[in-house]
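Progress report, Aim 2. The chain analyzed during this reporting quarter is listed below.
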Amino acid sequence: MCWNLYLTAELAQLRTRTDSDEQEPNTEQLTQPVSVVTSDITRIAEASQSRVAGIQALDEDGELIASGTGTIYSVSGQVVTVITNLHLVEQSSRILVRFASGEQLEAQWVGADEATDLVVLTINPDFLVEPFELGDSSLCTNGEWVIAMGYSDKALNECSTAVGVITSHDRIIPFDPDGDQQQEWEMIALQTDAAINEENTGGPLLNLNGELIGITTTQLDDQTAQDNHGAIPINEVSLIVEQLKSTGMVSRPDIGMNGRDISSLTSYQKSYLGISLDLTEGVLISRLRQEGPAQRAGVQLNDVLVRFDGTQIDSTKTFRKLLYAKAAGEQAELVVLRQGQEIQLSVTLE
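Predicted structure tokens for the chain:
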């Protein structure tokens, strides 16, 4: 009987402790810290902020007339090259560049290109500045995720991030500077639905590797679809920067044709176009201007450009670099593949 009484008392105490434990909240779970959510986009944005600059355009009295964003394009010794939009600074007397560290320095004007709304500036800071890694814009594809960054307020207090996709990787925009309804040149642009406004215009467009693939500009908005904005592809930007640094101006001989890299075609596309599956380099001619230099010389749609003035063409980047090295009125010798046969053509550039 004594043993039974002892067991009964122990069982009653055990039930009391169990009931108490069930009623007491689990403080360990309640005080568990919330995890910080990170992704490729958050990591890229954090790593890229120091490579984005704020731009302030001042008049002759030192009053602010416009602000926007600049992109740290390159660093050579103590010289930092920054790219921004021409429309932001073309009326300014002084241009200030503000770095993520808070330092603000006056920039020197190198040159500008009206067609692409780009201006190249240089600064000589006495502190460390890192540029963006340059990507290859010819590899961009429709539907690819991209990131646009820039300063969203005139005080340049915070670098903003916008995310979208490439909606067109080779949008052709005619350029008619004198308004005579005759296009002088065709500009290639990346079209994206990432938010681009007057504050972050001039900033970087990045791929998910964090590489710089374009410079954004609102100046293309009127010519692109609603809710889609434009960026100048970095392959085009690099050619422009080279010319502005060397001569202060951009020379654009017109050949009247555009294309896409053979390396970007699928096996199905090659088969449909009658292109050898073994061909991995060259430029497929996908657009010809009526009565343009290339068409008059005999170039046809779906020809594959393989040599330009004797130089092997591996991509549109190489082709346009060779083209920009020539002047209007000069001749260029082309070799194209048509139905597997090489055809030599001579084009007079305009």
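The helical segments are 2-23, 27-30, 40-48, 86-89, 234-247, 267-273, 293-297, 316-324. The mean pLDDT is 85. These observations will guide the mutagenesis work planned for the next reporting period.
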